[in-house]
Design goal:
Number of domains: 1
Radius of gyration: 17 Å
Protein name: DUF3558 domain-containing protein
Shape: globular
Signal peptide: 1-25
Number of helices: 4
Number of strands: 5
Distance between the termini: 35 Å
Strand content: 25-35%
Strand order of the largest sheet: 4-3-1-2-5
Keywords: Signal
Organism: Cellulomonas dongxiuzhuiae
């Protein structure tokens, strides 16, 4: 069972590195992240990094801005939330672009060490986004380029266990019209 989880996580790690350009010079040190209580793959900062925007019909209110960065001193991560572009979902409204939300747990120390060390800048591709969440639900959104933090991140992600994976509809790609039958 653990081998199957690692296989699934390995696929996530590969996606997390898509679009990373390790040859680009390291970026300046990141700031300290704002601690939030609502880690979500539907956060506007996350969706922007994934090249998506939340459909107006799914918005529940004004979006709060998120200050990305490294975990503050004393923050103890319990799980990681990996956000990546998913496939498409279909419902009575039509076909939606989706975001895959994957909760991972295990030894997060290598992951935390990897993002707090030197980092590589990402290329132009879409890169998975990572939240670190503590045991009480407080969370920090890592820098946008955290998934490009050298070879340590994919290995750290592979060692974590997939606890939950959910697809969230985000943007209506193809609405159902009167001329086109529902999928």
């Amino acid at each position: 069972m653990r081998a199957a989880r690692r296989g699934a996580t390995a696929g996530i790690a590969v996606l997390a590195l898509a679009g990373c350009d390790q040859s680009v010079a390291a970026q300046p040190a990141a700031t300290t992240a704002e601690v939030r209580t609502d880690a979500s793959c539907l956060d506007p900062e996350v969706l922007d990094a994934l090249g998506l925007e939340l459909d107006p019909s799914l918005r529940t209110g004004a979006a709060a801005t998120t200050t990305r960065g490294l975990p503050p001193e004393g923050f103890v991560a319990d799980t990681a939330l990996l956000c990546d572009r998913g496939g498409t979902l279909r419902d009575s409204a039509g076909r939606w672009w989706a975001v895959t939300s994957t909760r991972l747990e295990g030894d997060l120390e290598p992951l935390v060490r990897g993002v707090t060390g030197t980092s590589a800048a990402c290329g132009v591709g879409i890169v998975a986004q990572v939240w670190l969440v503590d045991a009480l639900g407080a969370a920090v959104l890592l820098p946008r380029e955290a998934a490009c933090s050298g070879a340590g991140l994919p290995a750290a992600l592979e060692e974590l266990d997939v606890v939950d994976r959910t697809e969230h509809p985000v943007a209506l790609e193809q609405p159902v019209t009167a001329d086109v039958p529902a999928p």
